Amino acid sequence: MTILGIETSCDETGIGLLKNGKIPVNLIATQEEIHSGYGGIVPELASRAHLERIDELFTKALERGGIKPADIDYIGVTNHPGLKGSLMVGVSFACALAYALDIPVYKVNHLYSHLAANFMDPGVEFPALGLVISGGHTTFFYIENPVEFRVMGKTLDDACGETFDKAGRILGLGFPGGPHIEKAAAEGDEKKIKFPVALLDAEHCLDFSFSGLKTAVLYHVRKHGLKNIPDICAGFQKAAGDTLVEKTGRCMERYKVKSFLLGGGVTRNRYIRERFRRLLDGKGVKLFMPDAKLCLDNGAMIAAMTYFLVKYGVKPSSKKIEVIPTQ
Predict the structure, then answer these.
(1) 286-288 sheet: strands from edge to edge
(2) Model-level pTM?
(3) Residues 76 and 42 in one domain
(4) Same domain assignment for residues 131 and 262
(5) Is 53 found in the same domain as 146?
(6) How many CB atoms lie within 10 A of CB 203?
(7) Pairing mode, if any, of strands 2-7 and 74-80?
(8) Closest CA to 287 of 276, 301, 295
(9) Quick one: pLDDT at residue 327?
(10) Are residues 158 and 248 in the same domain?
């Protein structure tokens, strides 16, 4: 079975192949050079970049995988959530290809797919708890099986990755902010500057709020200037980590699971990974984190999610797929 995965939800064009349970190809065209000058994603520029790159990336993926279009059995494509223009590029490409090849096409949830990147590991057991930590989302899922997800908590304002980007911009570190902050924090002291950790009331105890953390960094810089940037980054990173692990601990108390799955771009952060390792140590719950390249938006995770949709008998879409942008 050969599955083509297409991902264009935001600012990364991803084409991935899943062949006989393996990932032979996973190509990603990033847009950092396009958006870095603006300090954030410009939706119109993102969609145009997808349009310019997707055909070439698809051709290259087939060449590297040693297959022809006729060898593809199924296509999976992100149709939500994401930027409307970006999603339309991927969905249009997938539907046209599926029509030409007369093969099924599946509409795929982008967030589910971040966690599905872990499903290829045979050690994953269900029920599981999943946490997607990305630029636009910080969301808990209770996962009954590979195709049944239920939201347990989510972002109320700024997502974790978005806050890293905004803090990086405040500190003049460039975009995306996450890698710059992680690098600077390694040289700093996380105990020198204490930033607030928003844990919210009982009604929202599993939800996330990071806007106050971003604002605290802004106020600190206004008062003290850009002195001791490594210490600011270390304190900021610790506050973000404190929020994530505290919320995860609460979720673990409420829902008894066998596995804990991480996904999303922020999970590339080595400090955040280590915080979760320490949290889960000795708790009897297996921790799974994707390889760094599978943390970014990518086509392989879409192909993986599509594989389980096929396996569990979920019906494919018609050749017309609606696009559901991020609200």
Answers:
(1) 148-153, 138-145, 128-133, 259-263, 286-288
(2) 0.94
(3) yes
(4) yes
(5) no
(6) 7
(7) parallel
(8) 276
(9) 59
(10) yes
The DSSP code for 220 is: H
Beta partners for residue 288, in sequence order: 261
Which residues have CB under 8 Å from 184's CB, separation 6+? 171, 173, 229, 230, 233, 234
Kindly state the greatest CA–CA separation across the chain.
Answer: 62
**Is 325 a domain residue?**
no
pLDDT of 319: 67
Do the strands 22-30 and 12-19 form a parallel or antiparallel pair, or are they unpaired? antiparallel
- The tokens describing 111, both together, are 């967030």
CA distances from 215 to 94, 96, 156, 205, 209 (A): 41, 45, 15, 21, 12
Backbone angles phi, psi at 269, to 5 degrees: -65, 120
Count of structural domains, the chain: 2
Instruction: Output the pLDDT for position 199.
Output: 87
Q: Which two tokens stand for residue 207?
A: 């939800």
Q: Write the CA distances from 206 to 197, 249, 271, integer angstroms.
A: 13, 10, 22
What is the domain-level CATH number for residue 20? Answer: 3.30.420.40
Q: How far apart are CA 35 and CA 175, in angstroms?
A: 8
Within-domain flag for 323: no
Residues 130, 98 within the same domain: no
- 98 and 226, same domain (yes or no): no
- 157 found inside a domain: yes
Tell me the mean pLDDT per 10 residues along the chain, length 327. 97 96 95 88 95 97 96 97 97 96 96 96 97 96 97 95 96 94 97 92 90 96 95 98 96 94 96 97 94 94 98 86 81
- Strands 2-7, 12-19: pairing is antiparallel
Q: Which residue do the tokens 């950092």 mark?
A: 32
251 in the same domain as 150: yes
C-alpha to C-alpha distance for 128 and 126, rounded to whole angstroms: 5
The count of other CB atoms within 10 Å of the CB of residue 230 is 17
